[in-house]
Amino acid sequence: MARRKTARDVALDVLMAVEERGAYSNLLLNDALTKSGLSSRDRGLATELVYGTIQRRNTLDWILNGLVKKGVTSLEPWVRHLLRMGIYQLRYLDRIPGRAAVHETVRMAKERGHRGVSGLVNGVLRSYQRRRREWTLPEDPETPEKLALATSHPEWMVRRLMEVYGKETARAVLEAGNRPPRTAVRVNPLKSDRETVARLLSEQNPGMEVEASPLSSQGLILKGGGNPARGLLFREGWVTIQDESSMLVSEVVDPRPGERVLDGCAAPGGKTGHLGERMKNEGVLFSCDLHPHKIRLIEDQVRRLGLTIVEARRADLRELPGNVEPFDRVLLDAPCSGLGVIRRKPDIKWSKEPREVASLTSLQAQLLDAAAELVVPGGTLVYSTCTLEPKENAEQVSAFLERHPEFRPDGSLEDRLPEAVREKALRGEGWVQILPHHFDSDGFFIARMIKAK
Ligand SMILES: C[S@@+](CC[C@H](N)C(=O)[O-])C[C@H]1O[C@@H](n2cnc3c(N)ncnc32)[C@H](O)[C@@H]1O
Question: In which residues is S-adenosyl-L-methionine bound (predicted)?
């Protein structure tokens, strides 16, 4: 009978699949954990190994390049992932004794390869244990190369962040990228209120600390004490797991009951759900996405929340003008390079390339042009991304406003932002940029514009 998979086996399978299929680590990991039958402790270890190994890849490869004769790229992919995971445990997981990490890694090498591979794995890990002082990271990294190594990000990203935000801020952003994401939930005002839900969550989850979010009036931050996605409050639609910066987006859209609202890039439906809640389930909420397989995710979301005003449809936003009546408010939460959500999806660091930004900015401009046509005179357009790249954010919006003199940046945005955001975030005319270290939340850009009457 086949041996049951351990946390390390599951983690290695996910690491290989992320690279082979180019899929997001969080989706693959969730899927693998659901099928694994692992205890909650082992699920925690598998999660830490997957995220940690991807997060620290730069630093791990720097070490491995000093230990593997022909360098880390000469290794078969599974051996490379296994060694990265082994070194990760030795370097970053103090609670795992070194000999257990080596023993388990060598066992996996034996099971998956021939004797030569397990010999190599054993030799590399033991050499690292003996020589680990040789890999001391600079305490105050001055250059982009050193900062890339110390924070384990690709050099092009470090250079770009330094160029845009300066060295100190870039470093704070990069360090925030390595911190584990906080869990936040949005309370559904159609079912309850923030105080009641905070009390229920604390009662139902011993050890969980619950705090009000400084970013959203509907948000709660949860620390420790279980997974809210498994609880009754989630299943019954009282809460939705969502990052606090994301919550701010629908608050800035500020839709009113009875209006016609479009969520133009909607899947998986996090913001659609929030818009529907704020509309008190009255009016029309048209929610579309390009990819047919994602429409079900929006439908599941709105059903769970008890929303009946949502029409979820597969559509290319660029083809909607002329085919639907215009809307009082349009949200364009555009596809982007995702540099603000690296702590949640660390694989973005290694899968994105600078040239992708160029193709994304051109897609975003096309989406914005289509969205503009879909707003009624006097209506509101909100553009948001979860990235930190100005070409996709403030520069994108400036170019849009030049192409569309019928729109003006909305100066009232300032008054709509919570005080904490006004104090910390970067702001321009009608836009706000939250960086990941400001609130330990996702990095987000939000711009609000008004169409002339
Ligand atoms: C950042 S995600 C949206 C996240 C969503 N607003 C939420 O809060 O859950 C961007 C979405 O845009 C969709 N998309 C990309 N190109 C599109 C297009 N031409 N028309 C409509 N949707 C598109 C992608 O499939 C993706 O789901």
Answer: 265-271, 289, 316, 333
